[in-house]
Amino acid sequence: MQTSDILLPELPLGIVGFYTSEAIPRSMPIIAVAFSSAVYLYRNMKFFYKYLLPSVDLSVHEMDVWKQLINSENQTPEMITILQENLKAIPPKILSLQSQNFLALTLDQQLEYLEQAAELPMWKPPEITCISTLKMNSIDQYSVSCLVVGTEDGYIIILDPQTFTTLSQAKLCPMKKTPYRMITTGLYNVDYRITVASREKSVCLLKRESTEGRILFNTEEHIISIEVITADESIIVICTDNTMSCYTKKGKKQWCVNLEHRPISMTLVPVLHLGVTLVGVALTSGHVHFYEGKARLDTLFVRDVASVMRFGRLGQEEHVLIVVTGSGNLMLKILKRTADFNSSAAGVEPAPSAAAGHKPWLIPKKSKLFLEQSARERENAVPMHEAFQLELNRLRLLATRTLLDAHAKSENFMGVGAMEPIGLTAEVEGLGPVFRVTLFVENKSKERAVAGLAVLFHAHTAHYRVTNPYIKVPLISPGGKLKFPTKIEEVFEENINPDVFFRPVTGQAGDRALVKVLLLKEDRKRPVLAATVQMPPTDPMMLPFEKIQSGYQNNAVDWEIERKN
C-alpha cells in the first residue's frame, strides 16, 4: 500500500536511511538520496536539507585551454580544432563536465557557445558514485550513524549526522580509483574499516585516521557487488566472469566458485538463531542461490531478475528478504522459523555432531504471546539493561574479593615485576608422617638466565619438621627447569586428637596443614614468589598402635569426667 509519493529532481544514484538522534521518544529516520553532486535529505517523507559536495578546481592544462578558447582572437575554426584536440588529450576522469559537453557539440555550436560564454570556468562539481552509512558510537539498531559519500574523483567523505559538515575526507588510494560500492564496518569514534570496490577491478581499504587508503587486491574482471562478513571480516566478491570469490581481510584469496549464470546482485543473510550467515546471489536466470562458504544450501526462484536484494527486519518480522526485480516489482519473502539450512542439500558431508544423531533445536512457532513478550522486552530495554549491569557489578565484586583473599594467602605461582618470569610448583608424596615434597623452579624466559635464587620453607615447628628448610638454587638457563626434593615430617603431641586424621572432612585443619614456600633473591627484601602447600593428613596406619590407643583412652577419660560433672 502506497503511503506517499515524492517527485525527485533527477535520477537517483543511491538511497540510505539512518538516525541522527538517540532522543526518546525516538524520531523517524532520515532518508538520504544521492544525485549527481548533491545529497537530498528527507525527514517524515518531506524534504528539509540539501548537501552539496565541495567543488574541485580544474586542472592547470584545462584552464590554459579555456583561456585560449575565451579569447576572441582564437575563435576561428582552425584554432578551435587545435584547442579541441588539446582538450581530448586530457584524461576523461579529470575533465570537467563543461569541457565534456563542449566536445560533444558541433563546430558551429561550439562557435555559438563561445560567443555567449562570458566567464571562464574555474571549478567543476564533483560527481557522487556511491553512498552508505557508518555507525557513530554504538552498534545498536537505532544508534546515530554518519553519512559516507564516494565521489568520482576517488575521495571518501564522512559527514556529521547533526550539522552535515565534513568530519573526515580521505583519498581512496595513491592511484586514481573511482569507488563503485562501499561496505562500512565498525564505529567512527572507535575503529572502522571502509571496504570499497572500484570500477578499475580493484578493492581498496580505508581505515580510521588515515588520509589515504590502500589496494587490498585486484580482480581479473569487473566487480558487480561486494559484501563483508562481520564475523571474520572476510570479503565476498562477485564478478562479470560468473565467479564468486572470498578474500581475507588482508586481501588473500581463499576460494572461488563458478556460478551457473551471470550474477546481478548479492546480499548477506544472517540467521542468528541458527548461528549462520548465508550469502544470497541473484542470477540472470531468476534464481537466488544461498551459500555458506563454498556450499550452496538453498535456491529461491523469483521468476524475474532480482536487481536489488536486502535482508533484515521489517516490522515485527526479523527475517525478511526484500527483492526489487528488473521489471519494477517489489517482493517480500519471509523466512520460516522452522527453516533448517543443512549441508545435505548441497552434497556436503554432514558434520560429526550431525552424524552422531544430535537433534536440531525445537523452535516454537511465533505465537501472539511471543510477539507480546518481544514487544515488552523492547519497551523495557533500559530497566533490563540496568538489572543486568547490577548483577554484573555484583559478579565483579565477588571476583575482586576472591582475588584479594588469594593475594592475602600468597597463593600466587607467577612472579610479577621487572624480573624474568619464574614458575614455582610443588608436589607432595607419601602417606605420612614423613612426606616427600618436590619443588620445581622453572625459568620461563627464553633469552636470559636467572641466578641468586633460594628456597625457604616456613612452617609451624609444633606441627611440621623440615629436613632442609633453606635450599640454594643454582643458575637456571633460559627455559630450564630444576627440581629440589626435601622431607617434611608431621609432628604429633603425646596425646593425639583423632580429629587430626579427619581434617579434610571436618574442615578444622586451619593453619596446621599449611606450609609456605618462599622463593628469595639476593639484594631483595621481599620474596619473588610465595606458594602455599596444603599438606595431606597422615594415614593412621603409619603411626604406632600404642600412640593412637593412648590418644583414644585420654579422650574417653575426659569425656567420662565431663559426664560426671
Secondary structure: helix percent: 10-25%
What would the CATH topology of the largest domain be?
Methylamine Dehydrogenase, Chain H
CATH structural architecture of the largest domain: 7 Propeller
Structural class: alpha+beta
DSSP helical segment count = 9
CATH class of the largest domain: Mainly Beta
DSSP strand count: 33
Provide the low-confidence segments as ranges: 345-357, 410-418, 552-565
From the alpha-carbon coordinates, what is the Rg to the nearest angstrom?
39 Å
CATH superfamily of the largest domain: YVTN repeat-like/Quinoprotein amine dehydrogenase
Domain Bardet-Biedl syndrome 1 N-terminal: 3-207
Organism: Bombyx mori (Silk moth)
Protein name: Bardet-Biedl syndrome 1
GO molecular function, one term: smoothened binding
